[in-house]
Design brief:
The complex is a heterotrimer.
Chain A lengths: L2 H32 L6 H19 L3 H22 L9 H23 L15 E3 L4 E3 H23 L1 H11 L1 H6 L4 H23 L9 H16 L4 H21 L7 H12 L10
Chain B lengths: L23 H17 L2 H24 L7 H16 L5 H23 L4 H21 L9 E2 L5 E2 L3 E2 L3 H24 L1 H11 L1 H6 L4 H27 L1 E2 L6 H14 L6 H19 L3 H15 L3 H14 L1
Antiparallel strand pairs in B: 1-4, 2-3
Helix pairs in contact in B: 2-6, 2-9, 2-10, 2-11, 3-4, 3-9, 4-5, 4-9, 6-7, 6-9, 7-9, 10-11, 10-12, 10-13
Chain C lengths: L4 E12 L2 E12 L3 E5 L6 H9 L5 E7 L2 E2 L5 H5 L3 E4 L11 H6 L11 H7 L1 H5 L10 H13 L5 E5 L7 H16 L3 E6 L2 H7 L2 E6 L2 E7 L3 H12 L2
Parallel strand pairs in C: 3-8, 3-9, 6-7, 7-8
Antiparallel strand pairs in C: 1-2, 1-4, 4-5, 9-10
Helix pairs in contact in C: 7-8
Classes of the chains: A mainly alpha, B mainly alpha, C alpha/beta.
């Protein structure tokens, strides 16, 4: 195994980890506030990629405008989902919202599969991000590098917004005790809807980032989301930082497995999950549930 | 999560205390109808519906009576299907032995997945079972004996007791009916046994069951294994009827389907999941012919069930009858 | 009923799920008064506060705050009528720092205390501003819970058992704070298990039993009625 090949797989691993991190971060924020396991997270990630595609094909808007517009569009779809459906399930067993978002996933994927089949549509990276970058210790595809940087920035931004701002304090307070937070005069219902919108907006952003790497295809989300569930079980859903760290770490582990034992690369995350469950059932960063 | 600690468990929306004996008259009537049905409809279609009904009832053992949502039951269905197909086709085992192997293999998977999954509750249980069954999916995708995307085709139907040729669809039907009815009976017995009562007690109030001295985890695991084994029975039968064991059996979509059947019919009712299974299979048949996107319709039904119809068909019916009585 | 009542509760009924807890609770609190609800454990005192704030949603009857009917409002709207709530067990958020706890409730009326004024009153909170809210001692947490609502400009304060589980020195300190707030014109509804403490700062007492008011005592009549009160409270 050459050094260069090892590094190449590692780079792919880190950038895959970037997607795990962004998606599990959104899942963790939504779960913390709404107590909803958002199965539709993968489908909305896929929707993000398709919206980017439509922006390009129908409106001639390129990758960078899409990075700004898509999260807003997907976030608004999320707000709509919450107001029309999820909101009615507040206070019920969270299994119901899991099943509801599963249904939404089937509908979204079904629609896109009806029109696009199961095969993908290519979406090319912008010219500015084509090529390779020399990091000194390795040469890396520029686009992969960009994905890592962009997602690190977004993850840090989300963490900062939640841990260090006024709105974040509202979110944390409502996560801890929604009733009391509302009794202080904070409009918690709006806060919840907003959180769902922001969480899935993050998935939309990840979808645009993913479009040039994976092909834009109707099933790109659901295959990913199950792995992300495993990541979330490993990290524990209680912690923002835990979600980010375990996302990147598992991406790297998966990349390494591709080098040393490629047959197991699909399942390594699940195996890690099984081991974590045996050793530390609450998850690495989790509080007991 | 402090805000939902008082939320009732999923199954509690259904009238759960359906003890007492099943009205024998209705059971007899049902069996007569089932005996006549293949003369009216395609036997293969009725068999498909019966298999779905058994699968859903087995699944409901976990959700309806254990209060645990497994999102990975396709793993058991698929495992048994492969075991059945491989043992009868490659090893030349007889029908009965293949069936037994399928059930045991699924039960064994139930042990492995169950031991891991019951370490967490509620929503995590769902995610863990989903992840582990997805892992199994990837394993089956790659191991040679499953023949990947092609699946194991041309599974022989064989002979029951070495005499009756299952290639005859009527003999196949009656054999399958007998086995499925045995499965239903077993589930009915389990639910109404002391074991089932403890299970319901755990579902309704786990801390109390623990304080009463029950080894809660052991009960959950036993229920899980039983549920897995019976799902395997459905899977093994499926492989024989369609002479095919394929990757589709193990997908997360298939796990979702069995949840829908149960939800549609009524979580925590004896009859509900069977009715739901028959309905979903009928619907799929109809949709496949119509050219409409099946997943979209299934998804919409899912959404409708969760939003307005949480008791399911049979659950609503029972609630309505109870209301009328009081 | 007097017209200058800041808070007027009439025929208040409330339910926790299926269980009916308040059965026609009624009393009023006039501007600048400190009124205490006293009674045994489980009599419905805390539920009364939770029904006034809208935390207990299933409720009927009438709750008027500054002559606005609040019985049908959501809890965040009720707070905006000028209500400051200091909950049972203080309700300090563990995931927020002391300062974030202090700044959490939004202003509901103009002219609330500034952060600086609060730190002047409670210097300890400034020293510990960056530490985790629940790392404070019990007494400090109670100060924080009170300080938190003083910032919002609310002039009507609901205090639920502010002395519970605290050392006698701290209890005296809280008594001083309540009397001080009264002299500044705050209107206070106090729920207390500790009758001796309530006697040091309240103007009037309502005795609560089985979810309704069974007696009313003015501060001046305390001595005369001490026998009856002892019977009510089971002391």
């Amino acid at each position: 195994m050459s050094y260069q090949a090892l590094m190449a797989q590692l780079a792919i691993g880190v950038s895959n980890g970037a997607f795990y991190a962004m998606l599990s971060l959104g899942l963790a924020v939504i779960f913390g506030m709404l107590n909803v396991v958002n199965f539709a997270h993968g489908a909305l990630f896929m929707l993000g990629a398709f919206v980017a595609l439509f922006l390009k094909l129908k409106l001639g808007l390129g990758y960078f405008p899409a990075l700004l517009i898509v999260p807003i569009v997907v976030g608004l779809v999320g707000v709509l989902i919450d107001l029309t459906m999820l909101k009615r399930l507040r206070g019920l067993d969270p299994l119901y919202s899991l099943l509801l978002t599963f249904g939404i996933t089937l509908v979204l994927e079904g629609i896109f599969r009806y029109f696009y089949g199961s095969s993908g549509v290519p979406y090319s990276a912008p010219d500015e991000l084509v090529g390779a970058v020399d990091l000194g210790f390795m040469i890396m595809p520029l686009y992969r590098f960009w994905v890592i940087v962009a997602s690190a920035v977004v993850c840090f931004g989300t963490w900062y917004a939640i841990e260090r701002t006024r709105l974040g304090a509202y979110l944390r307070a409502a996560t801890e005790n929604a009733t009391l937070t509302q009794a202080f005069g904070i409009n918690v219902p709006v806060l919840l809807t907003l959180t769902y919108g922001l969480g899935v907006g993050l998935a939309g952003f990840a979808g645009v980032l993913a479009a040039p790497i994976y092909q834009v295809n109707p099933l790109m989300g659901s295959n990913l989301i199950i792995v992300v569930f495993a990541v979330v079980v490993i990290g524990g859903m209680g912690s923002i930082l835990g979600a980010i760290v375990s996302g990147f770490a598992l991406g790297i582990l998966e990349g390494l497995t591709k080098v040393f034992y490629p047959e197991a690369s699909n399942i390594v995350v699940f195996v890690v999950m099984a081991i974590v469950l045996l050793v530390k059932p609450a998850g690495l960063f989790g509080r007991a549930t | 999560m402090s805000k939902v600690e008082n939320a009732p468990p999923v199954a509690a929306v259904s009238p759960s205390t359906r003890t007492g004996r099943a009205p024998l008259l209705w059971v007899a009537l049902g069996i007569v109808v089932l005996l006549l049905l293949p003369h009216v409809l395609y036997p293969v279609f009725v068999m498909k519906a019966l298999i779905a009904a058994l699968f859903a009832c087995a699944f409901n053992l976990m959700l309806g009576y254990g209060g645990l949502l497994s999102f990975g039951h396709a793993a058991f269905f698929g495992t048994a299907a492969y075991a059945m197909a491989h043992s009868t086709k490659v090893w030349g085992w007889p029908f009965e032995a293949g069936l037994l192997l399928g059930v045991i293999a699924a039960g064994f998977m139930g042990v492995v997945i169950g031991v891991l999954a019951i370490r967490r509750q509620g929503i995590y249980f769902a995610m863990i079972t989903l992840a582990l069954s997805q892992m199994l999916y990837f394993v089956y995708l790659q191991t040679p004996f499953t023949h990947g995307e092609d699946g194991i085709q041309g599974v022989p139907r064989g002979r029951v007791l070495g005499v009756f040729d299952l290639g005859d669809s009527m003999i196949m039907y009656h054999t399958l009916l007998l086995i499925v009815l045995c499965g239903f009976w077993l589930i009915w017995r389990a639910v109404h046994s002391p074991f089932g009562q403890v299970l319901k007690a755990i579902r309704d109030n786990e801390p109390r069951a623990i304080s009463l001295g029950y080894n809660v985890d052991r009960y959950k695991l036993l229920a899980f294994i039983l549920s897995a084994a019976l799902s395997g029975l459905a899977g093994a039968l499926n492989a024989v009827v369609f002479q095919l064991a394929s990757l589709n059996d193990t997908t997360w979509q298939h796990s979702g389907e069995v949840i829908l059947m149960t939800l549609l019919g009524g979580v925590g009712t004896i009859l509900g999941p069977a009715v739901g299974g028959v309905l979903v299979v009928t619907l799929q048949n109809y949709l496949a012919a119509s050219g409409l996107p099946v997943d979209v319709v299934i998804g919409l039904i899912f959404i409708a069930c969760v939003l307005v119809f949480r008791r399911g068909l049979i659950g609503e019916l029972l609630a309505w009858r109870e209301k009328k009585k009081s | 009923m007097s017209t200058d009542a800041v808070l007027s509760v009439q025929d208040l009924q409330a339910w926790y799920g299926e269980s009916h807890v308040l059965h026609g609770m009624g009393f009023d609190v006039r501007a600048g008064e400190v009124v205490a609800l006293i009674g045994r454990n489980g009599a419905g005192k805390t539920t009364t506060l939770r029904a006034i704030t809208g935390i207990v949603k299933k409720r009927t009857g009438s709750v008027r705050i500054e002559s606005h009917e609040a019985i049908k409002l959501r809890s965040d709207k009720i707070a905006k009528l000028g209500l400051g709530y200091v909950p049972e067990e203080r309700g300090i958020f563990a995931t927020l720092s002391v300062r974030e706890n202090l700044l959490l409730p939004p202003a509901v009326k103009p002219n609330g205390m500034t952060e600086a004024q609060i730190y002047e009153l409670f210097p300890r909170l400034q020293e510990r501003a960056r530490s985790q809210g629940t790392k404070l001692s019990g007494g400090e947490q109670q100060m924080l819970a009170i300080a938190r609502v003083l910032r919002t400009g609310a002039r009507l304060l609901l205090l639920d058992e502010p002395t519970e589980g605290l050392a006698p020195v701290i209890v005296q300190q809280i008594g001083r704070i309540i009397r001080d707030l009264r002299s500044q014109g705050f209107t206070i509804l106090l729920v207390e298990q500790n009758f001796r403490f309530a006697a040091t700062c309240a103007d009037r007492f309502f005795v609560v039993e089985h979810g309704r008011v069974v007696d009313q005592v003015a501060a001046g009549d305390m001595e005369a009625k001490s026998g009856e009160l002892a019977a009510y409270l089971g002391v």
